[in-house]
From TrEMBL:
GO MF annotation, one: iron ion binding
Biological source species: Cryptosporangium aurantiacum
Domain of life of the source: Bacteria
Region annotated Disordered, chain positions: 1-27
Protein name: Cytochrome P450
Family of the protein in this entry: Belongs to the cytochrome P450 family.
Length: 490
């Protein structure tokens, strides 16, 4: 998902193309074998090693040690200088892969969902099929509209503050306070409290201590890191789906599971079912969508949100000017009620820009049908790509391109408030276009509210040395698992 100005939330027909896309072929050149091999090594192999579905702590540490993302950015800058900024096809034996090297082509690809650039990429499908086989992200274009509508209805895509924010805030506030009680905070402690909060938000308060369900998800995600090369675990997948379905059937009021039950026409009788249905009043077109196929993606996405939140704590602990502005915003709002906190939201946006939690945005190209005259049918564009070709947007290249962005290596939340980020298709921390993350606003509400809870009563001092000095450029890669804080009351 990108900025507000780039959002397109209403699904068009399954085979409809966005009219603002270019009407000419944009295929550029083909890289040499050597240049292709360099890209395969970094950024592609480095990104895969870290874990595209579930991060591997040892690989996160190693990537930070060698600053892997900065190396990847430099690699693509060299390719752009050599080949220009058109689409660049790699010479690889096992898959047709094309790199995106310009913001205009980022826009073309992301606005071109679900056809001709489908989010249901084959690598993504092999990974996510283990725990959300019917999820919107890996559904064919013809099945996307009702599933997208379902996700937008439950997640309140267009609202900065979710309609059930009161219920969500209780979980955020209580679990946030538990993070600070010992006077120190490391990643394990933060993650444990974070997942208690997430389970309460998504599944209900009864799931607070149900670590077995999220551990099972983590196991399936680890398998997903290997894509088609790891054998399936049908029993584990079925057990995970059963657990999610049980929470949807329970439909605890105030949870996303209850809203999902209502949105799908389900829910249990009585109060829970009523609460779920009321939460999505007027969304009759999403009946028949299986909630247990959509909820896993929300749990999955909250993992990345936790990493981003933890990184914001580190950034604010080391950047006094930005910390002061965050404190002023917190002090001017009543935190006992749900609040829209633009500056803290901008800080989260900025943390995801600096260190993308989805570094590789993948699309597979769907070739246009050919008419009797051997040309694409009316209204379709031939982009010069092969059917099924992987089109890759490497987010760090665009987010940290110091040849084109003056703020590339600085913590600059203001760009999300003054219009600069909104005007740039280089910045897509939550993707963009019709397949933009439907939970962006919910994530920003939850993360900014948690940050406000933590910072309103405590000061955080970063005690681990990670090179987060406002006088120097920020590292291209950072290890969140090694961040540690000392906490003192205000």
């Amino acid at each position: 998902m990108g900025t507000e100005g780039q959002t397109q939330t209403d699904e068009e027909g399954p085979m409809t193309e966005v009219q603002t896309r270019p009407t000419t072929r944009r295929m550029g050149r083909t890289a040499t074998v050597l240049d292709s091999a360099r890209v395969l090594l970094n950024p592609l192999a480095a990104t895969v090693a870290i874990g595209v579905i579930q991060r591997r702590p040892w690989a996160v540490r190693l990537a930070a040690r060698i600053d892997a993302d900065r190396r990847g950015v430099r690699q693509l800058q060299r390719l752009r200088a050599r080949y220009g900024d058109g689409l660049l096809r790699l010479r690889v034996p096992f898959r047709r892969i094309t790199l995106v090297l310009s913001p205009d082509d980022v826009r073309m690809v992301l606005e071109g969902a679900p056809v001709p650039f489908t989010p249901a990429n084959q690598e993504k499908e092999a990974a996510l099929d283990r725990f959300e086989p019917g999820g919107v992200l890996i559904s064919p274009p013809s099945e996307r509209p009702p599933k997208r509508a379902f996700n937008e209805a439950v997640l309140d895509t267009g609202r900065p503050v979710h309609r059930h924010a009161d219920a969500l805030l209780a979980a955020i506030d209580q679990e946030g306070r538990s993070m600070a009680v010992t006077g120190h905070l490391d990643w394990d402690r933060f993650a444990s409290a974070w997942w208690r909060m997430v389970r309460r938000i998504v599944l209900g308060n009864a799931a607070r201590e149900d670590f077995e369900t999220t551990d099972l998800l983590a196991r399936l995600r680890r398998d997903g890191n290997w894509g088609p090369f790891h054998p399936a675990r049908p029993a584990a997948s079925a057990e995970f789906q059963r657990r999610i379905r049980d929470y949807v059937d329970r439909a605890e009021p105030g949870s996303l599971a209850a809203l999902a039950a209502g949105a799908s026409g389900g829910g249990t009788a009585g109060t829970a079912g009523t609460a779920g249905t009321a939460g999505v009043a007027g969304v009759a077109g999403v009946a028949g969508v299986a909630p247990e196929q959509q909820l896993p993606q929300w749990l999955f996405a909250f993992d990345a949100a936790g990493i981003a939140t933890y990184r914001v704590l580190a950034l604010l602990a080391t950047h006094p000017d930005q910390a002061r502005r965050a404190e002023e915003e917190i002090g001017s709002h009543d935190l006992s009620a749900p609040q829209d906190l633009p500056y803290l939201r901008a800080c989260v946006h900025e943390a995801v820009r600096l260190w993308p939690t989805t570094p590789a945005i993948l699309r597979d190209y769907v070739a246009p049908p050919i008419g009797a005259d051997d040309r694409p049918v009316a209204g379709r564009v031939d982009h010069g790509l092969s059917n099924g070709e992987l089109v890759l947007v490497y987010a760090p290249f665009f987010h940290r391109d110091d040849q084109r962005l003056s703020y590339a290596d600085r913590f600059s939340p203001e760009i999300w408030l003054d219009g600069r980020a909104r005007e740039s298709w280089s910045l897509v921390p939550f993707s963009a276009g019709p397949a933009e993350c439907p939970g962006r606003n919910l994530v920003l509400y939850a993360t900014s509210s948690l940050l406000a809870t933590l910072l309103s009563e405590h000061r955080f001092e970063l005690t681990s040395c990670l090179g987060l000095d406002p006088r120097r450029r920020l590292p291209g890669t950072i290890s969140h698992v090694d961040m540690r804080f000392a906490i003192t009351p205000r």
